[in-house]
């Protein structure tokens, strides 16, 4: 064998034996024969074939060699190749990894709310209960802290976490940015009745009766029964009324008259017209039977059990007016009392008349037909398919 042939055969073996082969170019790029020996050329924990040879941030360095592929100031080794916001772009190439509208480069890796989630991945970086996507990176009070990091974005002395994103006065400005949240002309920082319900903040206190995240002094419906505190407080809000004498004022009491029926069910209607709203009336239909014992509490002739439905904890409310059918004198909101409509099913559609917006199935809403008897045939219009008796069905009658 000639010396030239022998050298060509032995040289690679010698290089391997001495480790010199490893000095050859191992960063020739993803997929290249030589580069395959180093699967993570920039040692960021993300394989080169995942990073690719594109240049996400346009800095002239391909991603597989770039410690910060998207140029957001957060190393690829920190961001990783997960996809936190599920947008199809891995975090190391995503300039807004949590999709909150605030660039990762602005949010960074700090964790001011101490929840273990860095800002660039945290939907609520300051932990005030208001999403970063709502607060944004503006600085509403000009204190040098962007709202998404500011615990008091309007600088009124009341934490954003207390004020929340509601809009008490309906002025289009959320409470956490509104210096006068109840629109009474008194700045929140000086207002002794923040929610304008007539009950002083000091009386309502910091409790959260309904567990909605708003302390009572900020919550216009502290017990979450759908009846405003301003109504339940009574004639002297500084000394809120306690109708049933149980030690809990009505604005905090979910059963103000202690009749076993939640105020949220009874509501502020007055079924029997006695001047007492149902939630304070222990006999709402004035039939002599206490509501707690009454199997037809609204006195419409339809048993509570039928009107309540299958889930007593979530009774049926056909017209969505906040009053469940068993307490609603007009369950379908068509203007015709349930006691007139009854629980029959005139059109055989499986819906009882008192819940049916078109009881006779003639295509004309009961609310339009009413309960008069135009043609004097003994059938009220809402049950009469030919209300005027002209031989033309109401649905076809001009």
Structural commentary:
With 398 residues, the chain is mostly helical. The protein is built from 12 helices and no strands. It has helices at residues 3-18, 48-51, 76-79, 104-107, 132-135, 160-163, 201-204, 229-232, 263-266, 304-308, 338-341, 366-369. The longest helix has 16 residues, at 3-18. The termini are far apart. The relative contact order is 0.04.
Mean residue pLDDT: 91
Derived structural class:
mainly alpha
- Terminal residue distance: 112 Å
Please give the count of helices: 12
* Radius of gyration, CA atoms, in whole angstroms: 35 Å
What's the helix-strand series?
HHHHHHHHHHHH
Which geometry do the CA atoms define?
extended
What share of residues are in beta strands? under 5%
Helix content: 10-25%
The oligomeric state of the chains shown is single chain
- Give the total of beta strands: 0
| Poorly predicted tracts of residues | 8-26
Q: What characterizes the major β-sheet?
A: none
Short description:
The chain contains twelve helices and no strands. With 398 residues, it is an all-alpha fold.
Features:
single chain; 12 helices; extended; 398 residues; mainly alpha
What does the secondary structure layout of this molecule look like, with pairings?
Elements: H1 3-18, H2 48-51, H3 76-79, H4 104-107, H5 132-135, H6 160-163, H7 201-204, H8 229-232, H9 263-266, H10 304-308, H11 338-341, H12 366-369
């Amino acid at each position: 064998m000639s010396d030239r042939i022998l050298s060509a055969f032995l040289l690679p073996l010698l290089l391997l034996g001495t480790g010199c082969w490893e000095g050859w170019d191992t960063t020739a790029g993803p997929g290249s024969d030589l580069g395959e020996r180093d699967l993570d050329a920039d040692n960021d924990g993300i394989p080169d074939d995942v990073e690719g040879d594109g240049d996400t941030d346009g800095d002239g360095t391909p991603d597989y060699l770039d410690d910060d592929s998207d140029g957001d100031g957060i190393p690829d080794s920190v961001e990783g190749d997960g996809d936190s916001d599920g947008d199809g772009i891995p975090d190391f190439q995503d300039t807004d990894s949590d999709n909150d509208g605030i660039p990762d480069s602005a949010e960074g890796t700090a964790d001011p709310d101490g929840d273990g989630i860095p800002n660039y991945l945290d939907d609520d970086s300051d932990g005030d209960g208001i999403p970063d996507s709502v607060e944004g990176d503006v600085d509403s009070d000009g204190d040098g802290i962007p709202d998404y990091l500011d615990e008091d974005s309007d600088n009124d002395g009341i934490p954003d976490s207390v004020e929340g994103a509601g809009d008490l006065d309906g002025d289009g400005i959320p409470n956490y940015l509104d210096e006068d949240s109840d629109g009474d002309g008194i700045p929140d920082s000086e207002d002794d009745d923040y929610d304008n319900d007539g009950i002083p903040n000091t009386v309502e206190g910091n409790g959260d009766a309904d567990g909605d995240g708003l302390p009572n002094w900020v919550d216009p419906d502290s017990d979450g029964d759908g009846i405003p505190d301003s109504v339940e407080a009574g004639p002297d809000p500084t000394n809120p009324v306690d109708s049933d004498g149980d030690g809990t004022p009505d604005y905090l009491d979910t059963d103000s008259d202690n009749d076993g029926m939640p105020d949220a069910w009874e509501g502020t209607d007055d079924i029997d017209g006695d001047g007492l709203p149902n939630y304070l009336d222990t006999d709402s239909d004035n039939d002599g039977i206490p509501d707690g014992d009454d199997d037809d509490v609204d006195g419409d002739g339809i048993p509570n059990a039928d009107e309540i439905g299958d889930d007593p904890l979530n009774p049926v409310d056909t017209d969505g007016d906040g009053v469940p059918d068993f307490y609603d004198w007009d369950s379908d909101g068509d203007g015709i009392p349930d006691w007139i409509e009854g629980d029959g099913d005139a059109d055989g559609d499986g819906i009882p008349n008192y819940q049916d917006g078109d009881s006779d199935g003639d295509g004309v809403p009961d609310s339009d037909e009413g309960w008069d008897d135009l043609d004097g045939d003994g059938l009220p219009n809402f049950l009469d398919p030919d209300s005027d008796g002209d031989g033309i069905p109401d649905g076809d009658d001009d």
